[in-house]
Structure formats: structure tokens, C-alpha cells
Amino acid sequence: MRSLPALTSLRVFETAGKCLSFTKAASQLNVTQSAVSRQIKHLEDYLGVPLFVRRHHRLELTAAGQQLLSKLEQSFNLMETAVQELRDPNQRQKLTLLFPPTFATRWLAPKLADFHIHSPELQLSIHNNDSEHNIFDCHIRFGRTARPNHYSELIMLEQHVAVCAPNLLEQAKQLNGNLLHILHEGQRLPVWENWLQAAGLTGEVDVNGGMEFSTLDQVSNAAINGAGFAIVDKRMISHELKMGTLVPFSQVEVSGPYGYWLDIKAERQGLAKVIRFTEWLRQISPD
């Protein structure tokens, strides 16, 4: 038997905690303000801690209130999903994913036929913008470390290779400053510095010049058209390497330190569709 306060009190608190107003919460819940106050008082008495600090004409959550609100939001979202799945069987089969554009286009898209064979009952909804106010089941993220307060698993590290257009191979023997750089969160990724160090060429090439691009697609297209030399993840340019539009000008490869991480919020981890996707992703991901 679970030891819990009344569900009504928890629901009222969650609404009031989001609004930071008993009046607005009462309006949303179609009850009186005094009813909201009573439910909050009952919950505070049950817990033995204050949940709100009552300022002049405004409310603030206490540390305990912030902690409880965060957990309740996750719990109510999970309950809402469970109910929606029963009311709408199609919703149960829809997997909403947030991916970086490059990863989705260059790595995931060629493998979607295999996913359909693995999980034909699941319908994918793939997004690359987290401002779309969707509740995402899984998030693939480019980064260096695990994400706090999530189940966070490294899917694969980048494997950087040095490439250029075939007609620039001779020039690549003496890198002349036509370096192509990828930006991440407004900063150049240090892929050139890492590669030059691994190649034993630190200090012999000026990495401060060159051109900057916000996406790998831009870098790849610039390199294909002879704009310069690039250090890129070989998995993301497998098509170009196969077709010969980009060719390696060195055998030196550098692993990481950036990679792609699978992040799942606590309230989504137990969903069957999330488990199915995670299993498939592990099967196709490189070691």
C-alpha cells in the first residue's frame, strides 16, 4: 500500500507551482482560490515542510517545493501518456525523437529501412528543434559528457579523418591555410588541433585562418568543391568517401573526444517503444 497524500492535493500543488499564483491555479482547475489554499495547506501539513514562500502579491517555491514540483511534473506527464496511449492506440506506436540534423540525415536516414524491419509497429516522428514544444521520447545529442538527471549513453565517438577534393591531393602535402572549420555552439571545434597533434604536425600549420561553417553539410560541400581541407567524422561522409568526391589525404585518424549520446528522461525510460528503439540503436551502433 503506497503512502501518499491525496492525489487532488498533488495536482493542485503542481498547477499552483507552475502558475506561482493560487488565483490562476484556481481558474485553471475551476475551483475557488480558498479551495486551492486548503489543498496546499493539507499537503504542507502532510509533508511537514512549507512548499511556498508567500511574498507581497506573489508566490515563490521553497527548495522543497521546487524538488517536489519537478518530480510531480514527470509523474503526471507519464500518467498522461499512459492514458493517452489507451485512448489512442496510434499514439502508443508513435516514437518522437530529437536528433541533430547532420546525424539524422547522414547517419540515421540510411538505416531507417532496417528499423522498419526491426520494429514495423513503431511510427517515427523525427525533429531537430527542441523549441517545438514536443514531449520527446529520446534525444540524440552531440557532446562530450553524459547529461545530468537523464539516462545518458554514449552511442559512438566521432572518428575524424583528413579529407579534401581529389584535385587538391597534391596541395595537401603542404597545408597552405585553406582549412575548413566546423562551429559548435558558436565556437570552433578543436578538430584540427587534435588531428595535427596526432599527426605530429603541431606548430607546423596555422589553424587560426580558414573558413568557418555552422554545419558539417556546409563543410563537406565546400571541401567537395575545392574550397580547402577538412577534418570530419568519417561516418558522416561515408557516401562521399565511397563515391570519391572526398578522399583522405592522410591515414591518421583521431577518435573523439566528441560523440553522440542517447539521452532519455526518467519518465520515458520504461516505455516499451523507447526500449525497442534503444535495443535497435545498440545493435547498429559501432563499438
Automatic annotation (TrEMBL):
Q: Tell me which PROSITE patterns the record gives.
A: HTH_LYSR (PS50931)
The HTH lysR-type domain, residue ranges: 5-62
Q: Does the keyword DNA-binding apply?
A: yes
SUPFAM superfamilies linked to this entry: Periplasmic binding protein-like II, Winged helix' DNA-binding domain
Q: Which UniProt keywords apply?
A: DNA-binding, Transcription, Transcription regulation
Q: Which family does it belong to?
A: Belongs to the LysR transcriptional regulatory family.
Query: What protein name is recorded for this chain?
Result: LysR family transcriptional regulator
Q: Which organism is it from?
A: Psychrobacter glaciei
